[in-house]
Amino acid sequence: MSITMQREFREKGYVILKHAVCPAAAVKEMRVHFPPDAEEPVQDFGSGNGAVFPSTPALNDITVHPALLEAVRAILGFDIRLKQSVPWAKYGVPSSGTGSNSDQRVHMDYGNNQWDMPQPGEPVAVAALVYYSDTAETGGATAVVPRQGLNDPVYSWPYTHMPGIGGNPFVNQKKEAEASMSGDSAALRDECYAREIVPHFEPGDVLLYGLDTWHRGTPVHRGQVRYAHNLLWAKEGADIQQWNPGFTSAMYSGKFERFVSQLEPAQLQTLGFPKPGDPRWDSAKFVEAMRARYAWSGLDVMRYVHSARKPPPAVPEYWLWSSLRLETSGDPFTFRDTLWHIFAQLGLYVEMQDARWKYTVETVSPYYVQAECRFFASGSTTSVDIHLVDGDRLSWVTMARNIRAMVTPTSVGTSLQSLTRTPALSRTASHLDSAVVEALVSPCMDARLFDLVGSGVNPDVLLASLPGAPMNTRRLLLRALYHCTASFDVRRVEPYVRARPRNFLEGRAHDWANRILKKGKYVAHL
To answer: Which of 33, 70, 118, 330 has its CA 20 to 30 A from that of 344?
Structure first.
């Protein structure tokens, strides 16, 4: 797909994606931003920036839509940055002077997006028009001039044959613009008009085109409104200027923080969020700052950075290995994920310190244990050293023994020994049902009970015990709620997200409440 799209984009100057996005929700929001019966609609591009990103939920989702990002990355490569996201409405009303875009002159978009001009060959930016209207009904489709090979005379470089470039006065309307041109420029532009095509765009269709592609806006039918969404992405570091105001200017209300915290890493990076491989993630202070800034809204910093780079290739000089050193010759990512799974079974919570494969592991139930976990790579061997242990030593000795047993291939299936000084609850073949849980949940319940709580338990039973519960019990109740398959009212969990953690236990309760919100089935409420 990427090779075909790259070739078509470079040969023709544009690509049309049919039904690439579902536009229904965005259309509803557009009608609110730009009512069809507006008395004095703005006729210039962007409709006065009335819905510029960050905007309302559906329009925000279009801005980071995976299908759009996949298509743009197929043309430019993975590292792209959003430069423009402007939804707008084009109304079928009489022209209001030379600045109106009712019947545009043919032009290229580089003029108001970069200091220089595009060089023939490798594209560094891709613009998009997402259509929210059927242009057969509304009119207003974008006309394009297909490029005819590398030596196409209407695409001769430098691109100076248009109003607003090279000393030519800027005029937007076609009739007045062409009257202002002469000589070779007029002849070239006449050829553009003779060769232009006007595709039929349906709601959800997307036009991708280059900043050096000849195109223009055509008139909207009288009494109609054409809704569309202009976007622009550029290669990281390219000389393409930012059209939208800074995105972080919206980050005080909490809405935009919640929005970005629900995005996947590949989406976040297009907004300029530090990518997982950014050297800043090597700083424990930076990680701590980002966690403090966004954890409340659902961003899992460790998950975001988790797949970045392989372990450090060198062990620090004079490194003193602990007694719990584990090695593998297999894939380091699989090794780490397996280790995290084992830790979860043992009741250990993992938190990233920095992106150089440095973590802390800790538990509070029933006895507190904390340790540091460091990974190193040497040739085909990946080593992990679990050291700097603090807390209940007897519990740690038992945990260490179980970790060794569970990561040894020959000991797969070894029964876990008791991790506490008290006898462990025996496991049953089936999980506890709601009636049993309701009878056992109490302010002084044993934490190990939750290993037996299944995903089918009625969440109301757990929710009813949250208010006034001791912090360790509250943490475990939220952990059990996270695994419930039944839906419940998220407003009963949100207080534990809003509260600022003051200690370890409150932090864990806060994290599990965040995970509940992160699962996604409460997005409509938020």
So the answer is: 330
Exposure string of 247-279, with b = 16+ CB inside 10 Å and e = fewer, is beebbeeeebbbbbbbbeeebbbbbebebbeee
Do 425 and 404 contact (CB within 8 A), yes or no?
Answer: no
Q: Is 526 a member of any domain? A: no
Please state, in angstroms and rounded to a whole number, the distance separating the CA atoms of residues 178 and 190. Answer: 9
Q: Summarize pLDDT for 444-495 with one digit per residue, the tens.
A: 444 445 555 666 677 887 888 788 776 777 887 888 888 887 888 877 888 8
- Please indicate, yes or no, if residue 314 is contained in any of the structural domains: no
- Tell me how far apart the alpha carbons of residues 512 and 477 are, in angstroms, rounded to a whole number: 9
Residue with tokens 């629900």: 262
Strand partners, 225: 91
Instruction: Indicate yes or no: pTM above 0.90.
Output: no
Residue 499, Cα to own-chain centre: how many angstroms? Answer: 25
Residues 438 and 462 grouped into a single domain: yes
Strand pairing partners for 393?
none
Decide the pairing of beta strands 80-91 and 225-235: antiparallel
In a domain, 523, yes or no: no
Residue linked to tokens 């519960």: 469
Distance (Å, whole) CA 50 – CA 151: 41
